[in-house]
Amino acid sequence: MDTTLINILCLILLFLGILGTFLPVLPGLLLSLCGLLIYKFGTDADLSMVYIWIFGFLTVLSAVLNYVIPAKTNKKYGGTRWGSIGSVIGTILGMIFIPIPLGFLIGMFLGVFVGELLHDSKDTKKAFNSTKGALIGFIYGTGFSLVVGVAMFLVVVLNMTHIL
Fold first, then answer.
1. 123 CB-near residues (< 8 Å, 6+ apart)
2. In this predicted structure, what is the pLDDT of residue 3?
3. CB proximity list for 91: less than 8 A, separation 6 or greater
4. Contact, 108 vs 86, CB < 8 A?
5. pLDDT digit string (tens) for 111-133?
6. Which of 41, 149, 150, 151 is deepest in the core (most CB within 10 A)?
7. From CA 94, how far away is CA 162, in angstroms rounded?
8. Residues ≥6 apart with Cβ < 8 Å to 111
9. Residues 6+ away with beta carbon under 8 Å from 128
10. What Rg value do the Cα atoms of the chain yield, rounded?
11. Percentages helix, strand, coil for the chain, rounded to the nearest 5?
């Protein structure tokens, strides 16, 4: 396969990976890592293996943090297991039934709120705080993944232009 086509494929995968950091229908950093690996091993790129190991580690770390951070922030803001379960169910239902690009996010927040109200229907303040915790956790996790995805993209582009 022509090196130019491989480079284009890599850039597309890296770009889709960046989009996937905040769109749950795309596997995010896994796409970016695939683009990086194809670039490293599918071309004659002189990209150091250190980048592969670092970005591989950061991809695994991001996958773990995407589960840990929202749970920790939810708990920090007074949330319960009910809110966490509501978050997962709401995210799935939001992707299916809310036909806008960020429907999953609306579903997640509604799920947390409803889950907390099912746990304790009299404590709406706690439900709001738990929802706030879910938002903060989402922002932290997504922000970390986005930074890693953009860094992968930049490493490949800089290596393609022989700056790196």
1. 116
2. 87
3. 24, 104, 107, 108, 111
4. no
5. 999 999 999 888 899 999 999 99
6. 149
7. 43
8. 86, 87, 88, 89, 90, 91, 93, 94
9. 113
10. 19
11. 80, 0, 20
The answer to whether the pTM exceeds 0.85 is no
**How many Å apart are CA 48 and CA 21, to the nearest integer?**
25
Nearest 5 degrees, angle CA 141-CA 144-CA 149? 120
Interatomic CA distance for residues 82 and 90, integer angstroms? 12
Residue count (the chain): 164
Token code pair at residue 102: 């960020």
Q: What DSSP designation does 39 have?
A: H
Tokens of 22: 């905040």
For the record, the structure tokens of 30 come out as 């896994």
